[in-house]
Amino acid sequence: MRVRVLGSAAGGGFPQWNCGCRLCHGVRTGNVRARPRSQECNAVSADGDRWVLLNASPEIRAQIEAFLALHPRGSRHTPIAAIVLTSGDLDHVLGLLSLREGQRLAVYATEAVRRGFVEGNRLARTLERFPGQVLWRAIDDGPATELADPDGLPLGLTLTAAPAPGRPPPHLKGNLPDDPLENIGLALADAQGRRLAYVPGTAEITPKLEALMAGAEAVFLDGTCWSDDELIAQGLSQATARSMGHLPVGGPDGSLATLAGLAARRRILIHLNNTNPLLDEDSAERRAAEAAGWEVAEDGLEIVL
Amino acid sequence: MRVRVLGSAAGGGFPQWNCGCRLCHGVRTGNVRARPRSQECNAVSADGDRWVLLNASPEIRAQIEAFLALHPRGSRHTPIAAIVLTSGDLDHVLGLLSLREGQRLAVYATEAVRRGFVEGNRLARTLERFPGQVLWRAIDDGPATELADPDGLPLGLTLTAAPAPGRPPPHLKGNLPDDPLENIGLALADAQGRRLAYVPGTAEITPKLEALMAGAEAVFLDGTCWSDDELIAQGLSQATARSMGHLPVGGPDGSLATLAGLAARRRILIHLNNTNPLLDEDSAERRAAEAAGWEVAEDGLEIVL
Q: Which residues of B touch A61 (CB under 8 A)?
């Protein structure tokens, strides 16, 4: 299984367009040793030929162009055989609207995420220009689903999902009944049983999410904020990480401490907010995460399981 | 007046994600002498300090980062003082949804364009997180409007608009009553009376559009397709340029012939579709356009009036 990080930042990217915090300013000027990152999006392939996107970021066009394996191989063609959504957040779904131009798409989403995108969203009609333009396929937290391309051809990957506690995005708040599957973590397994766990956003490590990660060869985990009060301390917001649906990485009850026993060979933090000191390659937090066996995702990182 | 081209391609950009036509393939491999282009978006400033965006492309984040003058100058700040929309096309409006993160925006649009974006579009609620997050200000084809920032401070630019014949985008078709102001051309003038005309999409050069362009020092014009049957000839679509709302550039009744008498010092074709031979710097069409006194916009082009 090949896994390619197309984008590794939280919503807004790094640097963020209207942010001049130490890190955003530092990455623009080169005063901080850090790499710019586009918004979270991954590509996974069992055969290196047909690819599954994990989420569809607003920057999907540039992300596709930056990865040769996703370039078309005919006058109208895409190696993107399916797209899996982990939430209805704009940074996870907005890219769908850039994947038009008459291409059929197979999109895997929970019913809550599908409704959040399709209902009450006239923009989604750009993906309803001909019958079957988007084939919505349901994810739930039951038995594994075999992923398939728009023609139904299997992609050699099965998907299991678990609810991830979170916070609905502003555009969905109060609009749909609360549903634990508004936000999920997932695992992909290939025919050899090699497993990737992908949990880019969660406010809590639940037993079900721990079960998803157990036995995975690689784990991508919510790395939005290092500390709960990170945005408050920088005077950028009144919101804690947890109130935004993100378990902080650091601290005695953060994800690193909670998952100290995780056996995965590759443990990778993704969905990094522009305020997160992990972005600074010279930071103490970066050294602490690495000492605990965690990597910090960056755009273009590729792993093979 | 400073004018900076942030993006110069039509919807889908160049190359387009799922297109392997001669030009898209050629720009990826370097076999065609052409530059990649992001989707059409311009920035204009009377004082070099506060900027007005013309349209908000899906790629706005990268476009802002690529232009130093648009970087924030404080911990939360943007030099983008206003945004003007010429249509409700996704490639003109989707970027608004990437300009969240608590920033106040002054958005100038006709009532038809505002309704097309706000009504029946739950995603737009991400821009309604606090009162006054987006200040919609109406454009019509009446007297000139003085552009102002969210606090009402004038930006030293006045705007006039005229209807541009076009075709509503798929997500709006049949949803709202037909309105000639769904698609507009506009002119911006500074205090010294220097004028920029901006007509990125039109199926026809009407007398009103000609009046907008008359006396302008610089004109940006719809350069989507060179010939009416360009997509058909390449086997990519059954649609003519005109049926998609774009007057072809070439031919005896194309825009170059129609506007042969235009006096503007800078005449620039923008919103180039990936099929347009003007993208190929070695093409006969490129030579013909240049011989007629027209430039082909590229990302990063800057002009001073």
A: 12-13, 17, 38, 58-59
Check CB contact under 8 Å for A58 and B62. no
CB contact under 8 A, A124 and B59: no
Question: Each residue's pLDDT tens digit in chain B (305 positions)?
Answer: 999 999 999 999 999 999 999 999 999 999 999 999 999 999 999 999 999 999 999 999 999 999 999 999 999 999 999 999 999 999 999 999 999 988 999 999 999 999 999 999 999 999 999 999 999 999 999 999 999 999 999 999 999 999 999 998 888 887 677 899 999 999 999 999 999 999 999 999 999 999 999 999 999 999 999 999 999 999 888 999 999 999 999 999 999 999 999 999 999 999 999 999 999 999 999 999 999 999 999 999 999 99
Is B243 in CB contact (< 8 Å) with chain A? no
- Nearest Cα residue to A275 out of A205, A215, A228: A228
* Chain position carrying tokens 């005077």: A235
Closest Cα in chain A, distance from residue B293 (Å) = 32
Instruction: List CB contacts of A217: < 8 A, sequence separation 6 or more.
Output: A194, A195, A196, A264, A265, A266, A305
Model pTM above 0.90: yes
Burial B161-188 (b: 16+ CB within 10 A, else e): bbbbbbbbbbbbeeebeeebbbbbbbbb
